Amino acid sequence: MAHDSDPQVRQAFRRALLLMERGIAVLIQGETGTGKEVLARALHEHSRRHAAPMVALNCASIPETLIESELFGYSRGAFSGALPGGKKGKVAQADGGTLFLDEIGDMPFEQQTRLLRVIAEREITPLGAERSVPVNFALICATHQSLTHLVENGSFREDLFYRISTGVVQLPPLRERTDRAELVCAMVATELPGCDPRQVIAADVWPLLLGHSWPGNLRQMRAVIRYACAVKEGAQIQRCDLPADFLAQVRSQPSQPARSNVQNVTPIRQSKPTAAPVGEREDVLGVLTDCRWNMTAAARALGICRPSLYRVLRRLDIAPLKNQLALGTYAPS
């Protein structure tokens, strides 16, 4: 996340880390599958609390009857069926570290009141306990819902909303990210170590991967890439290797424009440099000409970010337009 190619993701990480280091609760907003938990873990690992544990709780996955004991724990004999020695809750486990509450919008209203008190007073009272226990933790929350709407319809406490919404960061959906090609390459490299992802994916598959709207975001892309890498029988991932539901989705949804030879210009980290594929220079020059040398538009057409495009230009020995004009070498096609 700290060195992500997409500028929106980098900015979200930098801002969230600054907020976290100032003791401000961070609220990560974004569609399902955009990597909210990945961002939360990256923030913890880069924070001053990285030596202590990060404790995560998905508020949507815990039954309402159990979430109180999961969050705050309980003392010995607190209720019938309780463990003999009691149980330390997630908040106490995160003492000194980071507490990550995923899908905070699904937390039961009654427990929101208790959480608000914990955030305000920095102490918890386990179920059945007579004394409060001080706690010190960084708080990161995440949601795919609009908490403002939940407050308006009365299912989320307004005072808790203001407590956790001071440090809001937004993760962009995959369809708005400029590094889709790099993400595909990274996922392929994970599934097929030692390969060159640019050559593994067939030319007619790239437009499908880069032009799709990806309603399931990173989670969906990862599932599609894993499937294709697992079932491919030849040297390349072909259209027939893609999941049937993905192909159906591609046919039913309008796609974003993408050039078919984009795999030739996808910068990926390699242990050693590789030679430029035949025709790569012409392909990049074609994109630049089509976009009238507008670097932002060209990077978007190629499915990469501007810094990546500049690296590609240096590697292919393509001089910036202003240099060509100054030397009189520019020859428009």
TrEMBL record:
Keywords on record: ATP-binding, Nucleotide-binding, Transcription, Transcription regulation
Key word Nucleotide-binding present: yes
Renumbered residue ranges of the record's region Disordered: 253-277
Superkingdom, taxonomy of origin: Bacteria
Residue span, Sigma-54 factor interaction domain: 2-230
Signal peptide stretch: none
GO BP term (any one): regulation of DNA-templated transcription
Name of the protein in question: Sigma-54 factor interaction domain-containing protein
